[in-house]
Amino acid sequence: AQSVTQLGSHVSVSEGALVLLRCNYSSSVPPYLFWYVQYPNQGLQLLLKYTTGATLVKGINGFEAEFKKSETSFHLTKPSAHMSDAAEYFCAVSTANTGNQFYFGTGTSLTVIP
Amino acid sequence: SAVISQKPSRDICQRGTSLTIQCQVDSQVTMMFWYRQQPGQSLTLIATANQGSEATYESGFVIDKFPISRPNLTFSTLTVSNMSPEDSSIYLCSTSQGNTEAFFGQGTRLTVV
User: Of A4-18, A28-42, A81-95, B5-19, where does mean pLDDT reach its minimum?
Assistant: First the structure.
């Protein structure tokens, strides 16, 4: 079975500071990993994904994440936070044998302090 | 990619009534998914809807409460029946491109009073 754990339901950073949102996964087969962002009153938007190949993936809005198999992690980072980054962030996993189903973490709410 | 239009975007309903949420995809897709996102929580899969067959419900969700239609490869509806305040949530329609990406509608914010 697949599952995702996001450490920290709420994270606050100052504008211009590093953003680090943590995600660990559990999967018995090679995972596909995703980060989605949800702005208030909107659906989910894909930030970035890892399927195969390079383990450091870059996404939109300056975000990136690194797949570390040995640590079963896929943490999301951004060097410098902007006020517009304030949103809910969800890590998700799927695999080739989950029938197109995605499993989501509980989400991390990011607050950016001016 | 797939663009999903979902409506209504929000509604306030009386308890005991039903609400049908519509989801339209701009391309033909095999599988569509319905999620519930309760306040402050993550997404919980309600059911998977395949065209031409009964929807597959996850544990804790039943067809009588959440009937789903899937009349063709671009459209699906979810009905929340006999609503109570506990049904107040965001309901999200989704489809996926294999296992490599999931696409979401804008969500329906339901408040039951």
Answer: A28-42
